[in-house]
Amino acid sequence: MHAKRAIALTGLATGVVLACAAAALADAAPVRPDTSAVERLATCELQPLAARPTAPVAMPALSPCVARPVADDPLANYQRTPLGDWPMPQTVDRDDPWLRLLLLGPRQPLVIDVAVYVDGRPYAHGREAWIDEVLGAAPPDAVADAVPHKSADSADTADATDTPKVVETPTVATVSAQVRHAPTMHERLLRYVATVGPNVDRKEIYWLIAEWGSGPAVVVLDPSVSWQRARLAPLWAYLDRDRDGTLGAAEIAGADAWLHHADVDRNDVVEESELHRAATALPVLPMATGHSLTVLVDDATDWEAFAADVARIYGASGMAGATAEQLRPRAGQEADATLRVDFRTADRPATGLSLVALGPQFAARPDAVFATSNAISMDTGVDFLEFSAAQGAQVNRGDVATTQVAIGAVIDGNPLLRLVDRDQDHRITLRERQQLAGLLTALDRNGDGRVDGDELPLPIRFAVTLGPHVHELLATPTGAARAIAPRDLPTPPSWFTSMDKNGDRDVSGNEFLGTFEEFRRFDADGDGLLSVAEALQLDAGQ
C-alpha cells in the first residue's frame, strides 16, 4: 500500500469512528489531563498582534490563489451557517474551559482538545459574567417605563368609552433602531433590557451579542481563508518541469542546474522573488481542497455537512457512504493533541500556549514535537502541524471581544521552500542548493526514486486568539518552526567578509579572489564552499 494512504488510514482509525454507531456517542466524557498539574510537553509565548491585519503576500505568478486579502470586517473571515446565521450552541457551561475540534487535514483527520483560560478562568466565564451584569441591571418596572404615558385627556376619554388600549410590545427591530447610536455593546444591551423588560431570555442576549456585531463566544475561521495559500509552492512548481505533480529522478538530478538558471543576477543566491518569476504555473495539488479545516464539536455541529466533507476528502480511504453518526468522534475518545492556552486582560504573570498531551499514536515519538519561542511544531508523520496563540497588546476589559475565542487553521504554503531555506531568510544559498538533492531523497518515503506530491509534508498552522483575530495571525506565511539551539555564530575574518558578496557566510569559487589551487587547498571538506570555520582555521594557522 502506498505510504501516504497507509498513514492516512491509521489517522482515520484514531481520529474518527468508522464502524461505531450511535452507541459510541454515549461514551463517558473525554479523558483529559489536569492541565494545571501535568508536566507540559512543550510551551511557547503568545504572539503579538499588529493593530491592523497584514495582507497576504501577493505573488504575480500565483495571484489567483494568494492575492486575495482578508476582509476588512474581522467577523467576515469566520464561518456562518448556509443561511448566514452564526452557529449558536444550545448549552453553555461557564466552568468548562474545553473546546473539542476536528482538524480535517488533507491526509488525515486529527482530534484536538484545547483548554482556554482568560485571567485564570475558563473562557466562557467572562461572557457569562458580562451577561449577568447586563441582566442584573434591568429594573423591575422596566416594562412599565417602556409604555408611553397617557395624557389626562386621553385617560378621561378611555374611562368614558371604556375602550381598552392596546400596548404594543417592543420588538428586537424597534429596540435595535432605538439603541443603534449607543457607543458600546454593553450600553446597547442595557437599553434593550430596560426597554423590553426583566424577563429577557438569556439565549436572546447570546443572539443579540452575535448579531449586533460581536459574533458568538467561539468563532471558527472561514474555509476561504484557510486555503488561500494552498497553491503557494513556487520551488515545487518550478522544479516540476513536466507538470505531473511529481519530481522524477531526472528532475531531482537537475534541481541544482535549474536553480542556477533561476539565479538571474548570478550572485549564487536564488531569491524568493526570483523563484516566483521563474515559476510561471500553479502546482498540481494531490488533495481535496476548499473544505473547513477545523470543525468545532458541540451541540451546534452540522454533522451532515461534516459527513459530506469527509466522504469527499477521504473517500478513497473507504469512508465514502459512512453515516454522520458513524463519523462523529466518540465522546470518550482521547485527543491526538491536547493544548492549553492562557490569555490575560490585566497585569498578570506571563501566559502562553502549552502542549499538554499527545494521543497514543504520537506519544511514543518524543522527537515528533519541538518548540520555538512563539510556536509548537508537531510532526504527524505526513504533515507538519504548528500550534500558536496570540492576543492584542492592548486589551479593553470592557470590550465583549475579550470574552470571545477565535480558532482556525490554514495550509501555510511553501512546503518545499521552507525545508530548503533552513535559515528562513527567503533565499536559497549555494550551500542550501547543494543540500537539496539529499533532502529530496529523504522525502522519497517509498524509495521509488521520485518524490510524489503526497510525500511532501504540508505545513498546517493551527491558531487560537482572544477576540476575532486568528485571521490576522495566520494572514502571512511563515518559516518552518524548529527548536532553538542557542549558540553564538563566530565572526568571520575581515578578508572572508569582503569576499562573501551575497552574505550567505560561505565563499564560493566565484567569490574567492585567490587562485583555484588556493581555494581547493583551503576548502578542507571539499564541498566547493569555503565556510567561516575553514576561514578561522586558516587564520589560526591550522
Label this structure with key terms.
elongated, seven-stranded mixed beta sheet, Recoverin, domain 1, alpha+beta, 22 helices, 542 residues, disordered N terminus
Explain what this protein looks like in three dimensions.
With 542 residues, this protein is α+β, with helices and mostly antiparallel strands. Among the domains are: 88 residues, no CATH class; 46 residues, Recoverin, domain 1. Helix content is 32%, strand content 17%. The protein has 22 helices and 20 strands. The strands form five sheets. Strands 1, 3, 4, 5, 9, 10 and 11 form a seven-stranded mixed β-sheet that branches. Strands 2, 6, 12, 13, 14, 15 and 18 form a seven-stranded mixed β-sheet that branches. Helix 6 crosses helix 7. The two termini are 54 Å apart. The N terminus is likely disordered.
Concise synopsis of the structure shown:
This protein has 542 residues and is α+β, with helices and mostly antiparallel strands.
Shape: elongated
Specify the biggest β-sheet: 7 strands, mixed
Oligomer: single chain
The percent range for helix content is 25-40%
Structural category is alpha+beta
Low-confidence stretches: 1-27, 53-68, 141-168, 483-487
Residue-averaged pLDDT: 78
Q: How many individual β-strands?
A: 20
Query: How far is the first residue's CA from the last residue's CA?
Result: 54 Å
Assess the beta-strand content as a share of residues.
15-25%
Backbone CA Rg: 29 Å
The count of helical stretches stands at 22
